Amino acid sequence: xxxxxxxxxxxxxxxxxxxxxxxxxxxxxxxxxxxxxxxxxxxxxxxxxxxxxxxxxxxxxxxxxxxxxxxxxxxxxxxxxxxxxxxxxxxxxxxxxxxxxxxxxxxxxxxxxxxxxxxxxxxxxxxxxxxxxxxxxxxxx
Length: 141
Description:
Number of domains: 2
Shape: flat
Helix content: under 10%
Number of strands: 9
């Protein structure tokens, strides 16, 4: 009878992504989902209608939530242009504990998100505004 005895130790290895926690064993890694990746869905609603309109919502037990609804909008044309216009929101808790919420509209003007977490450009300096005004006035001469 032959036996193979194997001795080794477990040691944590750095993960290549934020979504998994990995343990190393010999030359192999065992990656398991972190608690956020193993979240359970606590609410799920989904309604898709034959006319192309829809409405959905979901929430997970770790605070992630999303909801959206959309309806086709007829812009006419030949062939007719009938895109689905959507609006909705999604939210989660950032790693620092602060809640993050984004609302959006997606229509003929594109995707338009709004929320405190979306970066905004800094104000245009007064000197630049003055220069642009000067150029606009003098370009017509």
